[in-house]
Structures are given as structure tokens and as C-alpha cells.
């Protein structure tokens, strides 16, 4: 049972956090018009990209480190609690359909397990033990990367995940929204996006959540670009799992090659629907098996495979 002294200590900690700061100028917000509140909130949100921009060098360094690990077979693992954990799970879940990654290649861990995506699990975020158990459960290795996510930068689950991963020799990144955070200090790469006090005091699903989403978008997307999952700005590794994505696959091949509909259908047919392979057959003037072999030799990088096709 938590004592009065424990609560006093926690309150003292919260008092030091920018994300928990009280805005006296917004104390009357509930008495304002809806349009005025909406404008105020929109103005607050508009400051987030600038806060992210101030940390682009740190973000880029982390991405290059992630890509180097993943190129050797490592995984990208997000670990967080509450909103931060949900954002990690969201980013991870979007990688397979967007980049055709194996579902085990990018993972999202949330304190309290999958049920915590929709229902708060009391006390889960306060346990470093749960973080260690979750990472042990996926068989974390030194090839992997763990990104601890916490708006406050003090969440035990996120810090515990980073500390355990670092002990194993895994790459560690700490993403928080407060300066001089314990999470950033625990990680090899600390990324602190300081967005300031929230519209609603302490509601870090707002600006802090937006900042975390922007950074996670960069971590996964730019890593996949570095790994050859795109050709220019085209998602050539897209997995065509529904009608919309099948239509998108054909459009991507068309944009990359300028081929006719008939040529595109033929190329996709002989490559089993693989967009990257289909593009290579059309631009490199090779058959399906050759395209697959060239891409394998180029570790999936289409530009390298095209150069190899031209030099045959």
C-alpha cells in the first residue's frame, strides 16, 4: 500500500515536469466558447513540429543506428505504458502492411499486455519487473533495438525496458517529452521533445502524444527507407492484403515504370504480386526468377538490383 510519504514524493516529482505544469492563463478555459477553445488547442498543437525539429540530429542518429541493427537481422521493439505504449503498438502494427515486414520484426509492448490497449491496467506502468518479463518473453537479443517511450520520462516500465535491453547489449533509445529525463539518461540515444505544458494540465495524450507519434513515424519510416523498403517515395514493399492495397500496388508499379495496364498485370502475375519484383522485371527487362535473385543479392534494395540488371 502506498504511504502518504510516497505520494508526497511522487507529487514533488510531478511538480518538476514540464508536461505536468499548470497554465494559469488557461484556468478559465471551460468558460470560453467552443471555437475559442478549438483555436487555442490548434495553436498549441502547431508548436509541436518545431519542438521535434529541434531534436532532428538526435532522431537521425537513432535511425541510422536502428537501421544498422535491423540490416543484421535485429528487431525494433517499442515499450511504453498508457498512451505512449498504445502509440508504440500502433506504429508497430502498421509496418507489415506498409513495408511488408514480418510481424515479429517490429513489435510494440504495452505495460499490462494487449488488454491495456483499451482498458487501463492498474499499476502496470509502475513495474520494471513487467518490462523485463515482456522483453524476456520475446527473446530479446543484442541485435535488437528497444525504444522506451514515456511522456514524463520517469515511467518505470519504459525505464526498466531500456535498462534491461542495455544490459543485454541491445541498442536503446529513450523518447520522452521532458528535459533531463531518467529515461533519456538510461538509453544510449536520448530523444527529448519538450512541448511544454498541456492544454489540460497533465493530459499528455495531447501535445506530448502528438510529438511521440511524429517521432515514431520517423523512426519506423526512415529506418525502412534505409533498409530499401521504398523506391524513391514509393512503397514498393507494400503488402497487397485487400482491394485498396491491390489497387495501390498497381498504381505504384505504374508510377515507377510508366508501363501499360496489361504490362503491369503481366509483371505482377509472374512475380506473385510482389511490387518490387514487378518493377524490376519491367525496368530491368528480366524475368521473375532473375528479379527475385537480383533483389536477394541486393538485400532488397531495388536501386542496387536495377544497377545489377543493367550491368548483366
What can you see in these coordinates?
The chain has 312 residues and is α/β, with parallel strands linked by helices. Helix content is 53%, strand content 8%. The protein is built from 15 helices and five strands. Strands 2-1-3-4-5 form a five-stranded parallel beta sheet, with helices on both faces. Strand 3 (145-150), helix 8 (156-168) and strand 4 (171-176) form a beta-alpha-beta unit. Helix 5 runs parallel beside helix 10 (207-226), helix 7 (128-137) packs across helix 8 and helix 14 (288-297) packs across helix 15 (302-310). The longest helix has 20 residues, at 207-226. The termini are far apart.
In short:
By secondary structure, the chain is an alpha/beta fold.
